[in-house]
Amino acid sequence: SHSFVTPLQDDPFDHVGSILVNISKKEEGRKMLLDPKRGLLKQIIRQFDSSSLLRKKGVSGTIRNCCFEAENQLQNLLLISEFLWPALLLPVAGNKIYGEQDTSKMPLELGSALSIDREPVKDPEIRVQALEAIYLIALQEAGRRALWSVNGPRILQVGYEDEEDPKVMEAYEQIGSLLVHGSENEEPSTTTSK
């Protein structure tokens, strides 16, 4: 009698999502997911648009775990930045519609999404995972540059203003202090090496 609900509930990717998170907990799993020849991470990230919360969680957890490899694999992460940044920044971009002044400094895939009304990501865990992933990327100097190049800090600033969950706010603040101190640490090194 309940058979007509099963097709809806039984989304195979939902199970795959949790498997992927487990695979991405191990270093060799992350290497496999980040291998540009396989193109797996790109395919996974594209599932983030799904309306299924389980699927979104699986994707965001997998991306976050893969970002632990940012130190050695940053290039492979940034190769798919047109998919990566929207998956990481849109969930933490807050609720407001961004103006031309902000979106003109963003790639199209971010700017166009932020200049219209959008469905907020209500699950705080996904927002924390996105912020942790951004933090791991931003620990690398080239990762910070990439974040600045898509106007990421502005998105984080706006998102932080809308955020009410203390755990999520903490994750924003962690990146904030990294961006402030990170850029400070880089300046002296350029001046002293003269």
Automatic annotation (TrEMBL):
Endpoints of the signal sequence: none
Alphabetical list of SUPFAM superfamilies matching this protein: ARM repeat (SSF48371)
InterPro entries cross-referenced by the UniProt entry: ARM-type_fold, Hgh1, Protein_HGH1_C, Protein_HGH1_N
One Pfam family recorded for the sequence: DUF383
Residues in Protein HGH1 C-terminal domain copies: 133-186
Domain annotation Protein HGH1 N-terminal: ranges: 11-128
Superkingdom: Eukaryota
Similarity annotation: Belongs to the HGH1 family.
PANTHER family to which the protein is assigned, alphabetical: PROTEIN HGH1 HOMOLOG (PTHR13387:SF9)
Name assigned to this protein: Protein HGH1 homolog
Source organism (scientific name): Gossypium lobatum
Biological classification of the source: Eukaryota, Viridiplantae, Streptophyta, Embryophyta, Tracheophyta
